[in-house]
Amino acid sequence: MEDLSVAEVEVPQLEAGQVLVRNTHHSVDAALRLRLDPTSPPGYLPAFEVGEGLAGLAVGTVLESRLAGIEVGDIVQHARGYRGLAVVDGDSAALGGAGRLARLDPALAPPEVHLGLLGGTGLTAWAGIVLVASVRAGETVWVSAAAGAVGSVAAQLAKARGCRVVGSAGSPDKVTYLRDVLGLDAAFDYHDGLGVQLDEAAPEGVDVYFDNVGGAHLEAALDSLRPFGRVALCGAISGYNGDPPRGPANLFLATAKNLTIRGFRAGAFADRADEARVELAGLWRAGRVTLELSTYSGLDEAPRAIVDLLAGRTLGKCVVVD
Q1: Does domain 120-267 fall into CATH 3.30.450.180?
Q2: C-alpha span between 260 and 281 (Å, rounded)
Q3: How crowded is the C-beta side of 117, counted as CA atoms within 13 Å?
């Protein structure tokens, strides 16, 4: 945590097309770690420069506006988080489009729900399950890191669409949460033996693997996937905090089984965000989808929140409230 600090800087004057936002809720996401290295993966969001402020999805209240359609007092989401006051460009396509400035409906849901379930987290899970993997009722779906933000929403979406869902996580408490709270059909701690546990949870194999971890998890999925199975590559957190994991030694199974393996980022589906929000809001109001919050108070706690998330000490969506 000594590598991150909170600094005070002057807020620039607004220009035409900009708004000033008082941020109240900041999204803490594992992908932030990829931008803290000297260089980020090719084709991904650029790495942060030393001394540059971090950035991420945030929700806040508009204090001043020079942008048509956005008024003082509006609640908005944008990609200039990790600062108390943010000057936001109305035409910015930040975070590959997923962080575009958007006015929110406070009557629909509270800010933390807009930021997580109805925001970038929900869009990522929805895009992976609905568009990339195209899950169908009756299929068996395995979701890794299923007690995390995206993983827990993806698992519940698959359940809502009539799938048998297996979730894996990294502690007994999280496994209990997956079974007893989220109601998954099977759940296991990958520390107890990844391949063995997966075989017991899905003895006839899986049709879809939603990958948040990469490495050995992806290799186990290739063994378990049925012919014409699909993999939605959402993340590879097993390699975010150290050397990237090696590629799967059994990759030829993708050819032998006619598998489809597709990587994706939420920003590529920003044009479908309203559609995702409508479905997720309906499921949330019906009590069929929920998103646990791990909340940290104040920007001074943001470094701790990031470290805790990457160490697997958080449950569900990690948020800094300021």
Answers
A1: no
A2: 30
A3: 27
The full set of domain ranges for the chain reads: 18-111+293-321, 120-267
Pick 39 or 22 by higher pLDDT: 22
The helix/strand/coil state of 83 is coil
Closest CA to 126 of 282, 237, 236, 261: 282
Q: Given phi > 0 = left and psi -120 to 50 = alpha, else beta, which region is 44?
A: beta
Domain 18-111+293-321: CATH superfamily is Medium-chain alcohol dehydrogenases, catalytic domain (3.90.180.10)
d(CA 172, CA 143): 16
First vs last C-alpha separation in the chain: 19
- Contact indicator for 61, 22 with CB cutoff of 8 Å: yes
Looking up tokens 């995390």 gives 148
pLDDT in tens, 16-30: 999 999 999 999 999
pLDDT band at 98 (very low <50, low <70, confident <90, very high): low
| One-letter amino acid for residue 71 of the chain | E
